[in-house]
Amino acid sequence: MKVAPVIRECERRGVPVRFVHTGQHYDYSMSDDFIMALGIPQPDINLEVGSGTQGYQCAEVIKLLEADLAMETPDAVIVVGDVNSTLGAAIAASKMFIPLAHVEAGLRSFNRGMPEELNRIATDALADFLFTTEESGNRNLAREGRGVDSIFLVGNTMIDSLVLVMDKVKASDVVSRLGLASGEYCFVTLHRPSNVDEPGRLRDILVMLRGVSESLKVVFAIHPRTLKNIKSARCEDVIACDKIKSIDPVGYIDSLALMSSARLVITDSGGIQGETTFLGVPCLTLRHETELLVTVEFGTNLIVTEDCALLLQTAVDVIDGGGRQGRIPHQWDGHASERILDILGERL
Length: 348
What we know:
Layout: H1 4-13, E1 20-21, H2 28-38, E2 45-46, H3 54-72, E3 77-80, H4 84-95, E4 100-105, H5 115-126, E5 129-132, H6 135-143, E6 151-153, H7 157-171, H8 174-177, E7 185-190, H9 193-196, H10 199-213, E8 217-222, H11 224-232, E9 244-247, H12 252-260, E10 264-267, H13 270-279, E11 283-286, H14 293-297, E12 301-304, H15 308-322, H16 336-347
Parallel strand pairs: 1-2, 3-4, 4-5, 5-6, 7-8, 7-10, 8-9, 10-11, 11-12
Helix pairs in contact: 1-16, 3-4, 4-5, 7-12, 10-15
């Protein structure tokens, strides 16, 4: 969903583009859902990296992408985000002296214990074009010694995707299909190891959700890994009540529809922090920090740490009307991909 608007804009301008899927996220049904929803072609190649350690995934991307780049000789390589594939592709392009553009550059959580943080820092150090989503990204890159001639505030391509599908989101019937009413539920997603891997922490979060359900119905889209850990910790009973509706993860359009109609969203996802800010829906993020500072400074996002009692009280306050109104950040207007192509067209 982050790269799709760039692909669409290339096609609109008649710019040849080769779409490489690394296969790091190897749930093909999820991948196809995004491709269909966003109206982009199937990948030209899938490297099929699959699961493995972080070092293995990076190494496989470097090895396999290098071979593909040697055959294709592109004018530039565009990478997005902060996953292992991002860093692997950045290294492959840089080693072959191919101009590298990083979309979502400059974001920093300042927590080097997060694998994504290391990927961001290393990718930004290699990139020739640093496309940022917010002013904090520009400041971080300048602090790290990058020159202003390589830093470009363009907006958020993920919001480009959201704007593109808003009509489909409004037409979705998932809220009524689940027997819900707009503004009458809390939507929850959790998947980060820090929240779901340690049984005691996981149980505390589930107890907190049960407390939230006493004030507002909870819809919990349970990631497969989270469900596995809930079962391993024997916590199913904690969320087995009428006021908590557990569902399988839904597709991109239905997920946005559930977010947009919620009174409150509780998550540990980076993407959802940005989407809820754009949608104007209060969001509580179960993390110590966020790389998306603009969602806290200007948006609807609140960071709540490990104190589940505080999280419960904050959630109840939001439910009672205390949520942040927020506003849409600068240049989160659906045109980030156009700015990216304008800059690359001028400078390559």
